[in-house]
Amino acid sequence: ACIGIFNETLNYTQAVNACKEKQSFLISLKNRDKLEILRNEVSTTYAATWIGLDDTDTEGNFIWIEDLTQLNDTLKVQIFNAGEPNNGRDKEHCVQYVSKHKLLNDDDCKELQPYVCEQTAV
Asked: Membrane spanning segments where (predicted)?
């Protein structure tokens, strides 16, 4: 896979569409290897970046944008920061990678953040 990190700050929906326009999708972290790639590529220059995971349809049911599959519970424990996802203020439905913790967090989809697109090898 090929990834691109874009420092333009967008809300989650805008980031989803921006990746689509680039014939790609917000990155999926379906395995530890992908998380490692992000850990190596996204420096602390970016406090947080959007990734392609959200529970906007059903609270607590996180879906990967790439193929609309559900995040499994085993992986959820490994890739989210402790105590997350917590749906803070009942408003957090989109997932960000947080550089400080090198793990994921759910955030308000309206927040403006850089984003990471992924393109599968053709």
From this structure: none
